[in-house]
Amino acid sequence: MTVPSASSRPGGRASPFRRRPRVLVPAGPPEARTVPPGTRAVVVGGGVAGISAAVVLAERGVAVTLLEAADTLGGRLGSWPHTLPDGTVQNVEHGFHAFFRHYHTWRAILRRADPLLGFLRPVEGYPVVSRRWPAEDLGNLPKAPPLNLLALFARSPSLRLREIAGADAGAGFALLAHEPRLTRELFDDVSAAEFLKRLGVSERARQMLFQAFARSFFCAEEELSAAELVAMFHYYFLGNPEGIGFDSPSEDHLTCIWEPLAAYLRMRGARVRTGVRAAALERVGDRWRVGDVEAEHVVLALDPGGLRALAGASTGLSPRLAGQCASLRVAPPFAVTRLWLDRDVRPERAVFSAVSGEPTLDSVAVYSRLERPSAEWAARTGGSVLELHSYASRAPDGATAGRRMRTELAALWPEVAEAGVVHEYTQFGASAPAFPPGGAGTRPGVRTDTPGVRVAGDFVEVPFASGLMERAAMSGVLAANDVLAAVGAGAEQIEGIPQRGLLAGLPVHRLGRLGRPAPATRRP
Questions:
Q1: What is the DSSP-derived secondary structure letter of residue 146?
Q2: DSSP per position, 452-480
Q3: What share of the chain is helix, strand, coil (3-state, %, to 5)?
Q4: Helix 304-313 and helix 319-326: axis angle, to 10°?
Q5: For the packed helices 180-187 and 169-176, what is the interaxial angle rounded to 10 degrees?
Q6: Residue 176 belongs to what H/E stretch?
């Protein structure tokens, strides 16, 4: 897999005011789009990463078999039917997901099913709410850096002089000077909690602006690498020319994403098999066997726990890949509670709110103002539909998490305490990746040293700045590109944001390692 380095033009420094995406991987020549007849691939896992790989491969003429253990596609973006007490069937999901506008790879895949992305609607604002302080809105800022940062400083009461008087200049500049390799060297062995403590801002600024952001990656601050935090701060805010605004589907994910993409794949000859769990990978001559499927090429697009289990039961993997898979860690459980209430919440409540300072509750979404099926139920009954999310729950089980989240929300939104609960549905599980301090270099990359095997997912080490759904989609397309390269076909184009921060490469970054001298700056 040939990709440009992060120091080349496509991954250059974040230029002020630049809006258009960078080409990170150029498209191959038109005459090299199709693969030789008989090229076969099996994709294990039908989430964002697996679907992204399967779409590109099927379009190029690869005979693709997609295996998904669940009955429906989607992984952590999955959706499935649930029957309410009144007999209404609604599709529920693993939780609210923001479709940020700089998710160029994922949006390109979604355009296969809906070229205009008509199912996405903008979500106005990005409020962070707290019991201790007035809400702050991280949305509706200028899109291009550094104007967004300047506007945030001008607007946010958490960034007044007294709130940041004790800030550490080195840690602060590190946020502005992201360079992939150097950031990892300086901060990977430091926890996000230690980094934020050393940053030295007030408790208000820490909770309202940084803590809620850190937890949205499904990890507790103490268990998240500071290098990952800095990289994600660059990716979502300081290097993002599209702004922090985002969209969300106006329909449930099954209806608007997974059923259309499955139909798209089948139209291109792919076999999409749900309810089929891949137990192991076995080398058979020059091919790989997964259950009753054989192919020369394999893309393993499982969650980290699933990949760890499959690799442990497989034969033929290299010691290095087997060791990388065995060392994968899963983040703490996440809890999602959907509530059908007998009345509406106040009209001024935002469609989506991040929550800061609560032990359990991390966000709340008003689904009855977000997607059509929930809105129709609310209009018919006079009620509302809320979703509560705990990204890294410390609760022992789902029932406890749901109860705690309702109590915490009632303290923030008093009308919830007065509402009757018509129905409640809670999920509790652990499938998100962990990014612990010291973990860089231990996770598998897309290309492996096991012939014919690629790995994709939001935990995979990819050569470009990306996060969450976009990292999953990007890794899937990179895996497909590696298969295409192996058979002489050209790459699928990948676009993204500038890879280096506004101050990357400047001497100020030498203040790096939490006050200790950093190594000489070099362009990665």
A1: T
A2: TEEE-STTSB-SS---HHHHHHHHHHHHH
A3: 35, 20, 45
A4: 140
A5: 150
A6: helix 169-176
Residue 285 class from Cβ within 10 Å (0-12 exposed, 13-18 middle, 19+ buried)? exposed
Give the pair of three-digit tokens for residue 394: 């410390």
Neighbouring residues of 114: CB distance < 8 A, sequence distance ≥ 6:
256, 260
What's the half-sphere exposure (Cβ side, CA atoms, 13 Å) at 377? 28
pTM of the model: 0.92
Give which of 513, 449, 509 is closest to 482, Cα–Cα.
449
| Nearest Cα to Cα of residue 77 among 66, 58, 64, 92 | 92
Structure tokens at 414: 């008093």
Measured over all CA atoms, what is the biggest interatomic distance in the chain, rounded to whole angstroms? Answer: 68
**C-alpha span between 304 and 49 (Å, rounded):** 12
pLDDT < 70 stretches in the chain: 1-19, 161-163, 165, 507-524
What pLDDT shows up at residue 12? Answer: 61
Residue 352 zone, left/alpha/beta (φ > 0; ψ -120 to 50; rest) = beta
Q: Which two tokens stand for residue 468?
A: 């969450």
Taking CA 58 as the corner, what is the angle to CA 55 and CA 63, rounded to the nearest 5 degrees? 140
Contact 479, 494 (CB under 8 A): no
The two structure tokens encoding residue 302: 């499982």
- Going by their DSSP bridges, the two strands 79-83 and 127-129 should be labelled as unpaired
DSSP per residue, 61-101: T-EEEEEESSSSS-GGG-EEEEE-TTS-EEEEES----EET
pLDDT at site 510: 47
Q: Vertex 256, ends 254 and 262: CA angle to 5°?
A: 65
**Of residues 214, 176, 206, 163, the one with CA closest to residue 512:** 176
In sequence order, the 6+-apart residues with CB closer than 8 A to the CB of 225 are 187, 188, 189, 190, 191, 192, 435, 436, 437, 438, 439, 440
Q: Class of the 332-429 domain?
A: alpha beta
How many angstroms from the chain centroid is the CA of residue 278? 24
Inter-residue contact 264 to 112 (CB < 8 Å): yes
Domain ranges of the chain: 19-75+252-328+441-496, 138-244+502-511, 332-429
Closest of 516, 62, 39 to residue 287, by C-alpha: 39
Question: Does 332-429 match 19-75+252-328+441-496 at the fold level?
Answer: no
Cα separation, 351 vs 354, in Å, equals 10
pLDDT tens across 132-153, in order?
999 988 877 777 777 887 788 7
Query: Which architecture does CATH list for 19-75+252-328+441-496?
Result: 3-Layer(bba) Sandwich (3.50)
* Cα separation, 389 vs 474, whole angstroms: 26
Gap between the Cα atoms of 149 and 392, Å rounded: 28
The pair of three-digit structure tokens given for residue 282, joined into one six-digit string: 């076995």
User: Strand 453-455 and strand 297-300: pairing?
Assistant: parallel
